[in-house]
Amino acid sequence: MDLLTVRKSRKFSKIGYALLCCALIGKSASASSLDEAHFYETATLSIQTQATGKIKNETNEVLVGTTIRNLTNKLSTASKLDGSFQIEAKQGDVLEFTSLGYVTQTITYSGSPVNIVMLKDESALEEVVVTAIGIKQQKRKLGYATQEVKTEVLDQSKTMNIGNALSGQVAGLTVTNPTGIFQKPNFSLRGKNPIIVIDGIVVETDFFDVPSENIANINVLKGTAASTLYGSRGRDGAILITTKSAKEDGLEVSFTTTNMVTAGFTVFPETQTEYGSGSNGKYEFWDGADGGISDGDMTWGPKLNAGVKVPQWNSPIKNKKTGEIIPWWGDVKGTIYDDRSLYERVPMDFVSHNNLQDFLRTGFVNDNNVSIAYKGQKAAVFFTGKYAIQQGQVPNSQLQSGGATMNTSYMFNPSLKLDVNLSYNKVYSPNYPRYGYGPKNHMYTILLWMGNDVNGKDLSEHYYVPGQEGFRQANYNYAWYNNPYFAANELNQQHNRDVLQGQSTLNWQVSPNFTVQGRASARQNSSFENMQSPKSYMNYGDSRNGDYKVWNNKRVDFDADVLATYHEEFGENFGISVNAGSSVYQRRMNNSYLATDGLIVPKLYSLANTQGPASASTFNSEKVTRSVYGSVNLDLFKSTYINFSGRNDWSSSLPQGNNSYFYPAVSLSSILSDYFKLPAGIDYLKVYSSLAQVSNDLDPYSTYLTYGKNLTYGSTPSVSYRDVLANPAILPEQSTAIEAGLALSFLNNKVSAEATYYNVYDEFQIRDLAISEASGFPLRKSNVLDFRTQGVELMLNIYPIKNENLSWDFSVNWSRQVKKFAAIHGSEKFGNYMVGDRADAYYATIWQKSADGQVILNNATRMPIRDSYAKNVGHLDPNWRFGFQNRFNIHGFSLNLDIDGSVGGLINSVTHEKMWWGGKHPSSTKYRDAEYTAGKYVYVPEGVIVTGGELVRDVNGKVVSDTRTYEKNTQAVSWQTWSQIYPYQARVTEDENKFFANTFDRSFVKLRRLSVAYDINKLIKTSKVKSINATVFGYNLLMWQNIPFLDPDYGDDNNLQDPSARYIGASLNFKF
Predict the structure, then answer these.
(1) What is the pTM of this model?
(2) Phi-psi domain of 240 (left: phi exceeds 0; alpha: psi -120 through 50; beta: other)
């Protein structure tokens, strides 16, 4: 059966599910006692007047779309864009006012103008949230899970990137937080990557160009049904951000300044400080490349602080004949001193230095924002400006961001309003550190490989070998590493980004029940980056003759859409809302790269200063997606709500004839407490369910065979095909999601809870599949994999205390999700993975074990033997995650305390592995003294040797038979050799050997945030300002983690991050 047939057969079960939902609703409706239906009818009374008025809320904001019913003559209308309304009524008629999220009000019309102030409904069910494409809905009507983030989180935690503030706030949303400067957080929502939507427009951002002061609301749409109307871009959920606008009449000015500094570390890596550079207890520096005694690598040398003198990298040079002493730093290659028969390095005290702490400096963040809001009768303007600067802990690292945003609104008449939003944001770093595994990373050098005998102060004062300034760095090692101070100060990596965005929205209220909205947005992201590499700078793949690289990237996103909304209520028991729209999305990308081939003149960074031919490449792409979409919402008895929605996309990146795909969704929400009498104390009970399907297209040109630039032979360029064979018949990826949940509240809304279960089937996932190279290609783009993801999310909100002088509320969220391989098309395995495996299964190289789990050693060397088959040693994702937020208000003082963490899952530590091999691991000192003193091996490893028998396995490594016999090892081995093999060359879990473990349980609990705020103006009582809010706060304050030395909050340990810093700070906000 081909994939297309499989897809069609699966659709029948999905359609059946939708019909079942509708049947259940129909049954519920028929079983209920229906009141007499009331339909819109034209009044025929001869004596009528027009009741007029305006509707606002408690904060003086006009309310648009408030429903006004004349309960006497059965007429209804809705408030206009300026909050005004008019309805036929006579004196004595009863008027009812209902609005999303507000308490319904009823008055008797007196004949005078009616001005209504609507009061917010505190019930969680009546809460209004922003959903897909900007549609506002009551939570009671939603058939899927969403969760709002309290904006106090942004106010109380002023990091350079607002993404960090979302950690632990939303059930199912995982935020990984790299610790180094100018590194974006990564988001995972139910195991996938959500889109970011700002004011209804999908944007791609790392959040460095999004000012937190401009954010009014954040809502997370979790399921496929919730974000179906965004099409393929919204298939994995969405984080919706609504920016601020002028709310109150008149003028308001606000200024906020925030300062925060690093105050030690939440987690700081520990290394051994007893032994210095070298191998087997010996060391003598000559050229830092094994020209001396073990001076090329490792920290297995002599003991430190033991009164020993050793020739080192910063030792003076001595003329053996004349006795002349020449101060020197670095090697002597290429100088007159490169003659060991005539010159020697003077031995110096072999003592310990605290290089990592000395290298890292105090970091700080200064953030300043000003906002001006004005609202008049017809026009409103909200302006905000920002400038922030961060000094990183790494020397010569800095990040600046700033910009201005203006949101304007103009009401031409009560039915026609134009919104125009303009923003410009700049992100600039004159230099930022390089992370990842390799000599470009300061942590790679200092933490893993540099012995504590190296004098870091001298490294910071001497960047170059004497007489070779600009050509050769002064360093302790010339085989693998850089002088970290030289790398931080002489190499510069600049980032300069400009983001310009404009958006206009025209809203026309054609009638009280019919609205048409047109919207257009353009966003241009231009970035210029360059990297200036000095001569002798060491990095994998880079020239050691210096280099200058330039990247110019430009991306323009254009969105335009039109949305028509119609709402009608037929009496008290039935209502319908219809949304229909169309959109077009266009993306253009222009990227260029230029680079020298070595530098002629040191420190002259220009493409003209190249030793060899300069290289250049460009990449341009364009993609267009056209869409139509719509939704129908049915309201039954004000208690049951059904939503049908759908979208069809036509993508330019898919082959013609197969570039159209449709996304259907249906959801149901029912307030059971409106139908059944619940036990005393339960306020309401809501159940909901949804079914949705969404497809995904490809990157531009993925289905075409295109040439790419290859090598240049002399002056003759060459081109080649890509390694991946295109597949013009490829099908779009598709996801089908089922979601069900319930929400309830009890004890007069003091306790509310929500639970959600979801089941997502991702089919026909596209991968590069290995094929016979007889085809001319090693890989072919194919529909290869199906996955099934199941998860549970729980949310709990409790208000134990709520009175005027003391209140406390706390929220708890908990989530768990498991993703597994459901099908592998065209093969039994995908790499090591098989059907039924978790998608995060960790297949790794392990040591051979006997049947009872003992490590098998080589009969000759007595070293462990690596298993030839990778083994699934566990899963990488946590078993579950949680967040715990507390908010106190004590006599005007606001206190916020947030804790989050995760339990279970594995993390493999590159740091531990490398520290064992290099000799920096704290436990690597255990047998050194005994071995050096005895002059022979003393460590006897635990394990067995094979004395006979045979092990038989099948092709997948499964044991068929094992007749081996064993003998316990009693032979001693080199402690250094064992430490450089057993905990380094294969994965060792804590269950196997806790002492040598390099793979750990990744559980952690973190005190993420603690803040205290107070309005000082309550004490000063000046009329010149409305408020002066002062806040003191701490971020990333305390942590318990299972893995030693590292913070698992930043993801996997394959990126060698800075130590996890603790921040404390204070902010002042003035409102005039």
Answers:
(1) 0.88
(2) beta
